Amino acid sequence: MHIVDTCGLKCPAPLIATKRALKDKGTGEVFQVIADSPTSFGNISRFLKDNNISYSWEESEGKWIITVTRGGSVAVTGNTEEYCTTGVPHMNRGGFVIVFTSDKMGEGDEDLGHILVGNFIRAIKDLDILPSKMVFYNKGVALGRSDSDFAGDLRVLEQMAVELLFCATCVAHYSLQDKINTGRMSNMFEIAQIMASASNVIKP
Amino acid sequence: MKVDLLQMVESGGCSSKIPPQVLEEILLTMPLPHDPNILVDIDTHDDAGVYKVNEDLALVFTTDFFPPVCSDPYEFGQIAAANSISDVYAMGGKPVIGLNIMMYPSAKLPMEAYSDILRGGADKAAEAGLRIIGGHTIDDFPPKYGLAVIGYVHPERIIANSGARAGDVLILTKPLGMGIILAGQRMKMASEADVVEAKRLMRLLNRAGADIMNEFGVRGATDVTGYGLAGHALKMARASNVSIEIDLGSVPLIGDTYRLADDGCIPGACFRNLVFVENDSLLRINLNYNLKMIAMDAQTSGGLLMCVKPGLEGQVIEKLHEAGLDRAAVIGKVTEKQEKYLYLYS
To answer: Which residue in B has a C-alpha nearest to residue A158's C-alpha?
Structure first.
C-alpha cells in the first residue's frame, strides 16, 4: 500500500501531502498517511471528514496511521480495538466510549451528583488510556455548557483527540444551542453505531 | 549579516496562538472593572477598549504583538505597527501616542536587526501620525514586536463591533489570504508576486478605510485579523445580537490563494478558527470547502469589515477604490438575529 509519511513535517505540509496523494489516486484506491502530532492528525482527519472521504485510523506510540479510501463511501469509522502503548502520556486511546445520560453522577443528593460528575470529567484526561469518544444525551448534554466549571477540561480532552458528540435533539429540547461550543452535534443513528462498535461503553 | 527573521519562527505558524475558545473561557472568569466612563471593554470582544475622558473626548486603547511574518526586519516592523494601529482605525479613532513592545534575542541576532524593526515601526507610526513616546524590550526568543496605541475618538462617534444593524451591507476593504500565502511561502508553493502583494497589504494602514467610515457615519465595524473573516464576523454578530450572511463567492482574494487552499496549503489556524465558529454558524450544504477554509484564514493587519447603511454601499465602494483599496467589495449583509449568528454560502 502507498504510504505518505508526514512525520517531522510541520503544518500545513502533512495536509498538503495528503491532498496530493488524494489527487494522484483513482476511485477506490487505498493509501495510508502517518502523522506524528495530534495537530496534524486532527487537521487531516477534520479535512477528510468535511470532504466526506472515508477513512479509518489507529494510534500507536505517538503516531497516527490514517487509512484513506479515495472516493469511497461516506462512512467514517474510528478504531475499535484497544491499543496499549507506553511512554507517551495522555496520547494512549482505547476503543471504549463514555456516555453521559445525566448532568449528575450516581443516585442521591443532587448537588453531590453535580460535583461528582465534574470530578469525573476532570479525572478522564489523567487516565492511562483515554476514551475514543464521549457521547452526551438527554440531560447529559448540559455538561457541555461553555459556562460550566469543567468546560476547560472538555476542551483539553478534545485537543487530545477525544471526540465529543452531543445529541442534537436533546440540545434543542433543553434549548442549549447557544450554550454549547465544544464537540459536535450528532444524531441517534451515529450514537447507536458508536455504542454498538465500542469495545466497552462506560456510563458514570 | 543579512538577517532572515522567518528562520527564527519555529512553530510554522501552527502553535503560536492560544485557541480562541480557550481564551474566551478564561476571560469569562476575569472580573471586569465597573466605571461609567468605560464605553467599550472586553465584554463585547471588541478590537480595543474605549474610555471617556469628557463629553468630547474618549481614548481608544489597544495592544498587539507577534513573531515575524516576513524575513526582512524593517518590513516586519512596518507590518507589526500597521497591525497594532489598525484596532484604533477599526473603532473610528485617530492614533495619537504609542509605546513599543519588543522581545528580542540579543545573543542570537545582531542588534542591527533590532534597530531595523524599530525603525520600520517608527516610520509606519509617523505615516499614521502616531507619536511613539517610549517602550519596553526584554531578551527573548523568537523575536516579537508590536505596539500599545492610544487614539482619540469622539464618545458619540465610536465605531464598535456591537454597532451592526439589520439591513446594513457588509464591505471588506482588503482581500483575504495572508495566512495561506505566508504558509505557501514557507512551503515554497506561493508565487513571489503573491508574497509581495500580501506583504504590501499587511503594511497598508487602515486609515483610508477609517476616514471613509467616518465620512459615511458607519457605526459597526471590526478589523479582520487572527480569527479570520468568519471569526470576526461571528464576534460582531454576537456583540450586535444580529445575524451576518456572507457570500464567500464575492470575497476578494489575494492572487492564487484559492489554488493554494485547493492544494492543501491550509494553516493550522484555519482549523482552530473553524472549531471556534462552527457551532454558532451555519455552513450551507455544498459550501465550497476551499472557500470555507479561506474564510477561517488568520489575517495579519487585515482589512476593515464595515457595516454600511443600505443604499450607501455604491458610494462607499467608489471612495475606497479611489483611495487605493481597489479590491474592496460588498461581501454580505446583516439581518435580524436568526437561529445562528453567522451564515456562510458560496
So the answer is: B275
